Amino acid sequence: MPLTFHLGSLILLASLFLWTVSPFPIQQQQQQPCDYSQGNWIIDHSTLYDPSKDCPFIGQGFDCLKNGRTDKDYLNYRWKPSSCNLPRFDGGKFLEIYKGKKILFVGDSISNNMWQSLTCLLHIAIPNSNYTLTQQTKELTVFSFPEYEASIMWLKNGFLVDLVHDKEKGRILRLDTISTGNQWKGFDVLIFNTYHWWTHIGKSQTWDYFQVGNELIKEMDHLEAFKIGLSTWAKWVDSNIDPSKTRVLFQGIAASHVDVKGCLRQTKPDEGPMPPYPGVDIVKNIISKMEKPVELLDITLLTQLRRDGHPSIYTGRGESYVDCSHWCLAGVPDTWNEMLYAALLETSI
After folding, report:
1. d(CA 269, CA 44)
2. Which residues are catalytic?
3. For the chain, how many helices (H) and strands (E)?
4. What residue range is the signal peptide (predicted)?
5. What is the pTM of this model?
């Protein structure tokens, strides 16, 4: 007995000594946060859904199969981060965690693309549960699951800052004011998006003047205007959001392929590396300086590599219209929602 006691004591003391002198006794067992933004597309034949059959509420412009797209290779890719794995989307678990909650997407039609993907993924997970889809206002659309008392909404807002109409001067984009912020309050999760409308030029431009303070500006660098506008949004979040009640995320910049190569008849992902994308550094810099936590869904590289994922001529608007900005569903936006799922799951369980 005494010998057994002394051996046990020695083993215990040796263990305590090793634990004490080890520089990382606990940290070694902790997983480092995964960087989902870096990786590549790998072949994966587990197609998530057929929107025409599984999600009849998907907008016409996103349902590429219904609009006549015959090549289906674009459905057979999955994003593989370089240093870890992206969790598979589990709609049932998502709804259990966010039961009784309200989620709001605020942004342009790329935001709508992501919102429609999420509603479809959730509906597929619980196909026998009732859902409601209502257009509450011209800008606000609500998708609800009464069984879970959960609502996933999209509020159309291309700039986040104010776009006002003046009878004499026309359309004025006020870079330093937000008058619609009350519409963003009272939600459990906010997912903001703005970028593409800022890059429009010529006839597709939706403003006539910029305004900062009392100064009207006929023209300025559009990325500089984007920087000022996004800074105004950041100040609004810092002044109005309680992080203990609301999670805030920013849907990163999705690359468009309105370039020489385009997206017409593209059937496979590109290969990296890719050049820096305009506006990304602005987003990262502003978010990094905010007082309130905002999580960035960094989707730029994974979209840069997927010029095959756009609707192209398969929008239902005829072959004369080529869309290299939005995304087919099923498709790339489902990955954005897997990233959203992973981000929300990290602190929700």
Report:
1. 13
2. 109, 323, 326
3. 8, 13
4. 1-23
5. 0.90
